[in-house]
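Researcher: Next sequence.
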Amino acid sequence: MDSKEIKINFHRCSNEVINFLDKFERTTYVSTLLVENNLICAHQSNGYADWDNKFYYEGKYKDSLLIKIGIELTKIRKGDVSTVIWDEALKIDKDNVIDKQRREHNIYHGISFIYGIEDNVSMALNVCTGEDTSQKEFENLMLPMRFALLNYFKDL
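Model: Next structure:
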């Protein structure tokens, strides 16, 4: 499948999974990223207008540890899957510049599910919850669904 076709299908699949997850009471933010040759080439989310321009692409937070780790973790082979629990991954960055912005939008705990579409193309599904949900509650809700959620993207 060529790059243009992957993007079209990515947007279709993203809409489906975002609409599904947006109905969960404990979900405060859902986004998908398509990464090609280590660069974000497409992004969708359930809200926060201009979030992608602030944090990805050429935004002021594009060099933050969160974004650097995220891009690094999308470097996986075709067919491989990975799960990132952001609460654990970001413990080393006590002054995470994105945290203030995240908290303002009730984004506290996050999990990413990453899937290798091709050796140089991957996608990430990022799901976050708010202050009223503990990290453990959120993990118990999301982790059992990881393969079902990634299954939305299996035909990319």
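Model: Residues 36 and 146 are 22 Å apart (CA to CA). The longest helix spans residues 3-22.
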